[in-house]
Amino acid sequence: MPVSKVLTLSPEALKEIDQLADKFPDRLAATLPALHIAQREFGFVSLEAMKAVAKALDIPEGHVYGVASFYSMYQKHPVGSFHIQVCTNISCALNGAVALLDLVKKKTGISQRGEVSSDGLWSVEEVECLASCGSGPCLQVNHDIYDEFVNEAELDRVLEACRSGQYREWAK
Amino acid sequence: MTSYRQKKDPQSYSFEGFGTPAFPNLMLRGAGNLDNWRLAIYQKEHEGYLGLKRALSMEPSQVIDEMKASGIRGRGGAGFPAGLKWSFMPKDTADKKYTRYLVCNADEGEPGTFKDRSIMEYNPHQLIEGMIIAGFAMQCHMGFIYVRGEFLWLIEKLEAAIEEAKKENLLGQNILGSGFNFDLIVYRGAGAYICGEETALLNSLEGRRGEPRIKPPFPASKGAFGQPTTINNVETLAAAAPILRMGGAEYAKIGTPKNTGTRIFCVSGHVQRPGLYELPLGVPLITLVKDLAGGTPNGKKIKAIIPGGASSAVFTESDFDCPLDFDTIRDRGSMAGSGGIIVIDEDTCMVQVCLRLIRFYAHESCGQCTPCREGCNWMEMILTRIENGEGRLEDLETLKSMTPRIAGKTLCALGDAACGPMDSILGKFRDEFIHHIEHKKCPKPSCQLVTYSH
């Protein structure tokens, strides 16, 4: 597995995880939210990130590995500053998602999942239903931006907005 | 607060209902207005928290009776009567041995379904109100909203709405002077369709892999953290607010006798006006698809309609008149599911539709039970071969023989969900499969539904 540049959780993150754990009946329950925090801190969920979460919550490393490997939103490889996720499930596919994914790949120069463009800007992932079926095809940039009814002009606008710093970068 | 932006003019995305000024929508009030989520608007314009006030003046058991009288059936997929589900929680409220939990299933991920998202986006307070009512009825003091990880901006919105409610003493200690305490925690998932299954959701909520549990014990006796728990869908819980406000009997007058109330139908696919339509149960499918959603965009013939999310069996023309209620759709061999209606036009290759759906289940199978884990993968491989023109006639018999070996042989219904579309598409469009095999290619090369990069 790829090694992350960051190797430990920051004191702020540790405090955040502690406060989270206090909200739940037991510390194990904070595994998922703690992994989200670790992903933000480490850039992706590396083995070091999993170990740091296990230590912060005082739970077995194997448990954290099992959870991190189960859920697809914990990236196990580095991603670009703008991780573009294209839904190709049925409703989006009926409205051109396959062509959209090809277009995204062509415009970012990314050919497969796990690859990051040489300038570090882009990575692309094909994802399952994002619950935007009525406004497909849709894509999501990082964790907070949905773009719907995406055609080529809309895609160009999204990519330009990323380049010009209008969107929040991954893990920032 | 959030970087989500409204990009398209509202015309391209429909929020419509049966609402008239005399009989307004129950669920989608104010949808489309980005400020609609605020408490002030909810209280001023949408009769917000009146249902809660009425509920708090009653006994908890009377609130459950109201839900039973309303006849509302769960909007998440199974259609189980919600009032009955609430009554399964242990009755002895004096017994302090139990902590009871209420969980809202907001892991919306069934392909074709996008209703819960709009409730949380435009009416988060209606969900919060419904959850306080449910919490009071079952004497839970803690509620969780399990939201899928991708909905980060909705989580921010829900948390802001919860803060507003806390300030007005609608949440927290001694709510509105009633002596009832209730808190809400928003929990973020991490991208697993299976966590929409209630026991998988509970495992996920406990910080584990989202693998479904063996039932029994059912969640009402042993749920989250080993305690009695009730899990309801967002739409079901949000409906508790108008039900308590208007009274269960009044709510039951909407719809048909066994399928009461309104439901949010999500229309997508090859359709002129995709969007959310709140309608009384029992409206014919074709009325919704043709009259309300405008039929196909270019006047093409409709070939098939998926009536209840990707897991339901497809309907062909003879069933387009089917009334949209739980029972009739089931009697015609499909299911009302989560209300996701996907319209497919005549130029679509049904083998690709089938492959696209099965690939989803193969990808999302949690891997616990062999029939589902292996079966969905094998179905995907065989369908890929047929689509690529390399299929054999005996593949069709293999596919047909696989579904009874998956359905009903697993812990949860994900395997069954894959078999619904598989069986129905193979049964109703067998000639298309045979055409692929005999001509060694897909007859509709311009139809592209499947990628090869997964």
Question: Can you summarize this structure?
Answer:
Chain A has 172 residues and is α+β, with helices and mostly antiparallel strands.
List keywords for this structure.
heterodimer; A: 172 residues; alpha+beta; Arc Repressor Mutant, subunit A; Glutaredoxin; 2 domains; 4-stranded mixed β-sheet; 10% strand; B: 454 residues; alpha/beta; Rossmann fold; Ubiquitin-like (UB roll); de novo design (two linked rop proteins); 4-stranded parallel β-sheet; 40% helix; disordered N terminus
Description:
The complex is a heterodimer of chains A (172) and B (454). Chain A is an alpha+beta fold and 172 residues long. Chain A folds into two domains: 60 residues, Arc Repressor Mutant, subunit A; 82 residues, Glutaredoxin, CATH 3.40.30.10. Chain A contains seven helices and four strands. The mean pLDDT of chain A is 94. The longest helix of chain A has 13 residues. A four-stranded mixed sheet of chain A has the order 2-1-3-4, with helices on one face. In chain A, a hairpin with a 3-residue loop joins strand 3 and strand 4. The two termini of chain B are 34 Å apart. The radius of gyration of chain B is 22 Å and the shape is globular. By secondary structure, chain B is of the alpha/beta class. The N terminus of chain B is likely disordered. Chain B folds into three domains: 228 residues, Rossmann fold (3-Layer(aba) Sandwich); 87 residues, Ubiquitin-like (UB roll); 90 residues, de novo design (two linked rop proteins), CATH 1.20.1440.230. In chain B, a hairpin with a 2-residue loop joins strand 6 and strand 7. Chain B has a five-stranded mixed sheet, with helices on one face. Chain B has a four-stranded parallel sheet with strand order 4-3-2-5, with helices on both faces. A two-stranded antiparallel sheet of chain B has the order 6-7. At the A-B interface, helix 2, helix 4, helix 5, helix 6 and strand 4 of A face strand 4, strand 8, strand 11 and helix 13 of B.
